[in-house]
Structures are given as structure tokens and as C-alpha cells.
Amino acid sequence: MGDELSIRNIGILAHVDAGKTTLTEQMLYKSGIIKSLGSVDKGTAHTDGLEVEKQRGISVKTAEANLVWKDEEINIIDTPGHMDFSAEVERSLGVLDGAVLVISAAEGVQPQTEVYFKALKTMKVPTIIFINKIDRIGADVKRVLGEIKRLLTDATFLLDVMEDKDAFIEALADRDDMILEKYLEGEKIDYPTLKERLADLTGECNIYPVLYGSALKDKGVSKLLDLLVELIPSASRGKTDELSGIVFRIDRDRASGKWTYVRLYGGRIGTRDLVHNHTKNMDEKVTRIKKLKGRKQIDADEIIAGEIGCISGLSSAVVGDIIGSPLEIPKVPNIAKPLLTVKVFAKRKEDYIRMVEAFQELEEEDPFLNMQWIREKNELNIQIMGMIQLEILESILKSRFDIDIQFGKPSIIYKETPAKKGMGFEAYTMPKPCWAIVRFEIEPMPRGSGLSYESRVRTEDIKLRYQREVEKQLPITLKQGLYGWEVTDLKVTLLEGEDHVMHSNPGDFLIATAMGIMNGLSNTGTVLLEPIISFRISVPEDMGGKVLNDIAQMRGSFDSPIISKGMFIVEGEMPLSTSIDYPIKLGIISGGKGVITTKFSHYSEVALDRGAIRERVGVNPLDRAKYILYARNAIK
Fold first, then answer.
1. What residues pair up with 102 in beta bridges, in sequence order?
2. Given a cut of 90, is residue 577 above it in pLDDT?
3. Concatenated DSSP letters for 326-350?
4. CB 43 within 8 A of CB 55
């Protein structure tokens, strides 16, 4: 792995069961990295390393492999397809130079396909679409191409036209003004020029090339590898001398401890270097570096821009941390959203503390777990994407930590948002020494906008270091609103305030902000929000009326159904709270012939009596006297 090779970090993304891991196997086999093909169904796939992956036949963790094709180096990043593990995909998006989006020729474009493509498009990641399983019964490439144009993009380019130069010119002229101009003026256009323009347009995400084949039958795999090096731009090494990288994965080894996977966008990291963790604002010393060679990790002296490295010594790092400068790091859209919260219990009481420690370790690897440990109640809560994730967590706790656990019944994660515009005020000036006065304006914002903050206060009134305390405390306080849920979709403006040259202390504005914000929320009131999912249900035609009735009962809405080849297909939206058990019910009433696929859509207002109130953890800042004592460690 030297400078003589260029490198590409390529993600393989797909809805579950599209054949993504089988495609990765073939790519590794073709390039000579593995000597025999594994099987997902038999649990022998080389990129499915966890025992639970082998048993279930699904990918749970992202797996990396390195190969060389036509003197070009490719890091393959095989991501899980099941929506319960979309957090793994989200973490991988931040390291990609290009992607292969795999779509089954039989099942077509599925909900997660749409989610992943939208993210790739937003991030401008050059993407080749591979229509897989063309040998399968029920495969219909024409139908799938129609779905791609309707649901993903109409900027597709069918790569089979490349075999006929005239067809290649005409197809590219439809997409590119430069080629069109040459064509209309009768200029001779050679094949290398066509390939170069196709590569440019792919790299700019103005075209999404489409290839079809069968990973299982080795159709189209070599062509796909060729296209990855011909059409996807390589990572720009040495783009900047300034260190810039992102942590996208944490692994642990029983012998050598914690390993941090970093994608570098700028600069270099060498062994024994002191590197700055921008997120944690601390420096740590690199003790060892490894890089992928095939499926193995080999020791290396350094990693440079464009490369992925596995680093030992960054003991405080967690997934999502930025190493060095944040300026080169791409912004990743949020595609993973935990919608359920669940209590976790150790089956043996003596394992309780070990279980908490195990989940703290797992949270470093998956921050979306959002672990909440209520020590005084001996209660551990985590957030999850779906029910299969619980099975996986149970398996990991047993195999990795030798702890037997069980879960309570999952409940829906609601949110809150201000009901109207209002003010919050706090003058925290007693008991001395303390001094922090703040006045906030709180206003509701559009759905999905999250939290925005602005300060209009001069540094002569509140010093910059105290204003930073306000900004730091804001998201912490908003984790629990009037009904115990996170408050979102709001703008908070610090309008005025005051510190004191003698009496203000570090931490005073943390306390004042918590009380001032909760005072503001009590003035505005809050509205409960519930998660809404979009769905696609397919059942035998004679069951259509029953399904539509069920959707209405679940407070759902739907578009005009489609009847095709004896199947009734309907799409729409419904609350997660009313439909959480519906996949099981649908399987029973349809004799296993019904299929439902879902994805998160948005949060929507719901009446309090149809939602839920969550018990607050810790002291409520609205109980001002008690909260001040609690915040000053005078009471527990």
C-alpha cells in the first residue's frame, strides 16, 4: 500500500436480501483476496464475521476488505441492509469516495434502497447502480428500471450501450451538452473521449450508471470492478496538509484492546504521533497503526489522506469523533433514527454492573444506543431501531461479555416541541457566590428542523466563555421537556443577560440556562410528537379490503392501491404506536403470504391522551430551589 497506487473507498449498499454480501464475496474472489467463495445462506461469507451473522444470514456490522484491481486499490465497505442496522450505514457514509447501490431484479426498489440513495445523492457520492439477481424467478429488469426512474433518479445511464459506439454516443449526447454539440456538428468522437466524459459526469453525480448481472452466477462482477476504477474518482491524497479525519468504527481485541478506525481526508498520522481529537478537545498518542491488506490487518508506519487506518492509543475516541480539523469532513445526513426505547435487565443480579459497563462499551461503538443509566432506580434504558436489533444485542452480550440479559416491552420514543412563542428568564444570583442572568426567546420551528440557537448578547454583558456554557447546556436541558421527552424543532435566542466580575463562577450559566429554558417551556407549553412510518404492503388480492380496514383502524392513510398479478399492493403512512405489532398480525392473517416493508417518515403532532408521558430522570429545573442544591452537589 504505497503512494504508487491510487485508492478508492467504495461502499456496497442495499436493502436487505438484495445480494450485497454475495456481490462483495465475488469481488474479493475475482481479485484473488479469497481462494474460495463463501455463502450467506450457509453462514460462510467472509465479511459476516459475527456468530449471529452466520446464524441469521444477515449482515449486522459493517465489514471492510481491501483489494487491488488493474493496479488500483479499492477498500470495499460492505454495509448491513436491514433497517435495524442503518446506523452502521450512516457511519460508513462519511468515509466513501463512491458507492455501489445493489437492487434485486425480483424485489426491485425497496424502502431502504430509497433511504440510502437519497443520502448518497445528498452527499454527492458517485454511485453505480447494480441490478442483481437477473437469473432469479420473477426478475424483471424493465420494471426495476422504471422504479429507479420513478423513485430514485431519472439521471440513469444504461451501461450496456457502451458495447455499441453509436448507441454510446447517442445515449451520452442525451445527458451531456458537450457530446451533443460535437455530435450535432458532425465532429468525430473517439471512444476514450466518451469514457472520459462518462467518468466526469459520474464523478459529478450528474449521471448514475446502471449495470445488471448476477453476483451468485458471476455475471457482471468483473465489469463492475472495471467500472469502479474507470468511473469513480480516486480519493484525493494530500488534498490538504492539515490533519483531518473521522472515526467511523470502534473494534476491540482481547489481546490488544481498543482499535479506532479512521478515514483520513487530509494530512497524515504516524506511529507515536500526538493527534488532536477535535470533538473531545484533547490530544492522544498513537501507539500502533494497522491497514487492511485483503481481509487481514497488517502493521503500518503511517496512514495518509484518502486511506483508512486502524489506530491503537486513541482510548477516549468514540464513533463520530473528528480527528484534527473538521473542515474537510463531509456532512452526513441522518438516516438512522431510533424510534423505540427499552429497559434492559441482567438475568443474574450480580451481573448488573458488568452489564452497564458492557453497554457503555457498546455505546462507544454505536452512539445511537443513547444508553440511560438511572443509578438510583437500578434501571438501564437503551434506544433501538427495531426488534431484530434486540436479538443481536442479546447475542453480543452473551458471546462477547458472557452476560445473560432480557428486555422489557419496547415503547415508542415520542418528542416534544413548543406550542407557541414565548420567553424564559432566570436570575441566578443567590446563594452567593454566583451570578448568571439570562433571558431567552423560544419559538417553534418547522417539523424536522431540530434545534437552532442564536445569541444576541454582547460579550461586554456576558463573557464569551459564559456564553459557551449556555450553548453547551442547551441540548442537555432539552433532552427532557415538560412530558419527559426530548424537545425538538425550535429556535432558542439568548436575548439578554449579565455576568458579574466578582460573583460569576464557571458553571453558573449551566445552572441558569437549565432553569431559564424550563421556565420558557412552561410559558410556551409543549405539544407531543409521535413517529410516523411510511409502509408498502403486498397481500393476495382477496385480502385487500381487510388490509385497508386495518390501516384505517391504525390511524393510517394510503394512496390508491395497485392490483398486479393477483397481488394487492398499497403504500401509505401510519403511526408507529398503532402499527408496531402489525407485521406479526399480517403474517398470521395472510398465512405468511403478506409482506410489509417500512421506513421512518417524520414526527407529527398527537394528542397527549394518544401518546405517553415519560417519568423525568433527575431533579426538574422547574423545582428551582431543589435544582440549585442538586446542581451545586448539596443533595444527590
1. 14, 130
2. yes
3. STTSPPPP------EEEEEEESSGG
4. yes
Q: How many Cβ atoms are within 10 Å of 462's Cβ, its own excluded?
A: 24
Q: Which is higher by pLDDT, 622 or 615?
A: 622
Query: What span, in angstroms and rounded, lies between the C-alpha atoms of 314 and 312?
Result: 6
Mean pLDDT of 369-398: 90
d(CA 470, CA 464): 10
**If we measure between CA atoms, which residue out of 66, 68, 125 comes closest to residue 92?**
125
Amino acid at 419: A
E strands, 576-627, where?
595-605
- Of the candidate ranges 55-64, 77-86, 589-598, 623-632, the one whose mean pLDDT is the lowest: 55-64
Average confidence (pLDDT) over 10-34: 92
* pTM of this prediction exceeds 0.90: no
Q: Which domains does the chain have, with CATH numbers?
A: 7-155+207-231 (3.40.50.300), 244-324 (2.40.30.10), 340-411 (3.30.70.870), 416-520+618-631 (3.30.230.10), 528-605 (3.30.70.240)
Question: 301-312 burial, b for 16+ CB within 10 Å, e for fewer?
Answer: eebbbbbbbbbb
Closest C-alpha to 478, from 468, 488, 489, 466: 488
Cis previous bond, 431, omega within 30: yes
Contacts of 121 (CB under 8 A, 6+ apart): 127, 153, 205
Q: Say if residues 388 and 396 touch (Cβ distance below 8 Å).
A: no
pLDDT at 331 over 80: yes
Q: How far is CA 313 from CA 63, 463, 505, in A?
A: 22, 36, 35
In whole angstroms, give the CA distance from residue 94 to residue 177. 32
Q: How far apart are CA 9 and CA 78, in angstroms?
A: 11
CB 511 within 8 A of CB 631: yes
What per-residue confidence (pLDDT) applies to 268?
A: 93
- From the CA atom positions of the chain, what is the Rg in Å? 27
Query: Which residues touch 473 (CB under 8 Å, ≥6 apart)?
Result: 509, 510, 513, 514
